[in-house]
Automatic annotation (TrEMBL):
The keyword Heme does not apply. Keywords: Signal. Belongs to the UPF0065 (bug) family. Residues 1-21 form the signal peptide. InterPro entries: BUG, Bug_dom1. This is Tripartite tricarboxylate transporter substrate binding protein. It comes from the Bacteria.
Amino acid sequence: MTITINRRAALAAALAIPALARPSLGQAPWRATRPVRVVVPFPPGGATDMLARLIAQGLGEKLGQPLVIENRPGANGVVATQNLLGSPADGHSLILATADTHTVLPAANPRLPYNVAEFVPVSGIASVVFALVARPGLPVDNVQQLVELARRARPPLNYASYGYASVSHVAGEVFRSAIGAEMTHVPYQGAGPGVLAITADQVDVMMVPVAVANPQRPRLKMLGVAAAQRFALVPDVPTLTEQGIPVLADAWIGLLAAPRTPAPVAEAIHAAVSEVQQTAAFQETLRTNGFSSLGYGPAAYATFLRAESERWGRAVRDGNIRVEG
């Protein structure tokens, strides 16, 4: 099973959607009148937090007000998302959401205390590509050897993730299903602990962002990249597709505003974000930290999110991944 979408097609579809309302001629574009807070649903130090602070460096200047980063981890993004629900819909409160918090989790937990579709798309900023890594003591050097071992292993091999009902979990389950092997899921509280368990030979394999795994290359085996093409950060690592397993996995990161935020406000914020994104320094930081740039405005981002909900929702259902309560 391939979990992917054609982003070119998604953008083409977005162009067919009527443009979001813009300020009429003579009406000044929206400007922030007080500090803008960006809620991050993860602790400081992770990839999402790093991206938030990178955006904040230039975005505050563009909006005319400082950006305040608020880290509110907990419950796979539920804590941060609920915090935004109580904020005025005036553009001064945003969330740096991810595929984990606003695509995979809603598919796995239909009882969330909010509807993620009500949040207003502002800017699709970046995506992270995943890689399949293995512990150093596992007697395999490529994906085909792993497939052969996984199919005959008793007890079954296990695969780690950085959390139940995360992109890492779903991507691992999709890989397990694609190779037709029984494997046991072992969730960890974050990508860092999961990778450390791999390097310590405590768990067999893991689907994890390339940027997280790459610094640990001397202490683990990076078997394949879950992308359509080889990834620039690790050009020596073949894709899973090259090795006969067409599994593609990446996770988006972007800004959403509170429900009922007016379209002109979202457009104005995106215009400022776009200026920051287009700088050479920002693009270089993305590249060296394992991100791919998205650059979607509100309309294209909304179309993209609908497509992402469909593809990850299908993978969640196929894997029978559910969060109760």
